[in-house]
Amino acid sequence: MTIRKSLFTALGVFCAAMIICCSCSSPASAKVYKLKAGHVLAAESMAQATLQHFAKLVKERTKGDVIITIYPAGQLGNEKDLFEGLMIGSVDFVSAGVSAATSWVPEYNMFDLPLIFDNEKHLFTWFKSKEGAQALKWFEKCGIIGLGWSSYGFFHIISNKRPFDDVAKIKGMQVRCLESSALMAPYKYAGANPVAMVFSDCYTSLQNGTVDAMMTPDTTCETSQFYKVVKYLTMLNICPTACPITMSKKTMDSLPPEYQKIIRKAGAEACTYANDVLYKEYGQHALKVIGDSGVKIIYPTPKQIQAWRDTVVNKTYAEFVPSIVPKTMIDSIEALRGK
Q1: What contacts 24+ positions apart, CB below 8 Å, involve 136-141?
Q2: 9 three-class SS
Q3: For 46, 191, 201, 243, which has the most beta carbons within 10 A of its beta carbon?
Q4: pLDDT tens across 209-249, in order?
């Protein structure tokens, strides 16, 4: 009887311990979620640093139950491939410019309109506005969730034949653009020849003269080493890169609610970190590296900027506003100009 009583006592203690362990664990803790994030830029890029910060926050706050592996340099495909991956659920997170998503969300042509934002202060203030929040939700109609807005810099022009400060002197030049109608339109109206080309082909095309010039942020020029194959960087601020952290809705819906909340908050915080910290850090470093390499950095005069406005802005806006881009959004951007 003593042995039997002891066995029952031990069994009771074991069951009680199991009950306590189960009650202390969250429903999600039994499973580790391994997710993929992709971008097309170099492993040294601001996109990589932003996603690394995001992945770190998510891992810490889920106590290791959500692990995000980052695939840089187009390992998961080009920009359009990545957005398509989000739609079907083969890619979980993406950091890429919305210019590549205009086939599905044409309203994002707004960010590609020439000289739409004056500078990063203007852009970041608008990101935080009510209209900025509304625009982030445009992705939802194609099964993508925007977690927050970030930017990796304004588009400038790198070139070989001549700089791009004088809009009257770029006629006939081949300019690489993302496949966005609004990005290509200004060069068309200026008499140049815009060429849609995937990012992975750009370095070689600049090197062998297939294209004469390319739109790119200074940060991307540095981390992708385009400065090694060009002579000029014209700081034109033609339009911003709008690069939200985006997530597949299919992936989000597959996660427990507590992890969904953590991911949404971490995504927003990572974008704020990118805008408030990384933007300045990467921008300053990029210009130093590019300048030290011998590339001539040119800042157009106010008169030259006005000539660009006179040549391309009205014609491009007439093509896209309000037929594609809501005028209310343009009005909200204009209301913040100079503030």
Answers
A1: 136/244, 138/105, 138/107, 138/108, 139/101, 139/105, 139/244, 139/246, 140/249, 141/104, 141/105
A2: helix
A3: 46
A4: 999 999 999 999 999 999 999 999 999 999 999 999 999 99
Place of tokens 């953590």: 262
Q: Is the peptide bond before 27 cis (omega within 30 degrees of 0)?
A: no
pLDDT of residue 30: 67
Res 5 pLDDT > 50: no
Helix (H, G, I), strand (E, B) or coil at 63: coil
pLDDT value of residue 9: 47
Give 28-34's long-range contacts (Cβ < 8 A, gap of 24+).
Answer: 28/62, 28/65, 28/255, 28/256, 28/258, 28/259, 29/63, 29/65, 31/65, 32/64, 32/65, 32/66, 32/67, 33/65, 33/66, 33/67, 33/255, 33/259, 34/67, 34/69
Which residue is it, tokens 């982030």? 136
CA distance 27 to 283: 43
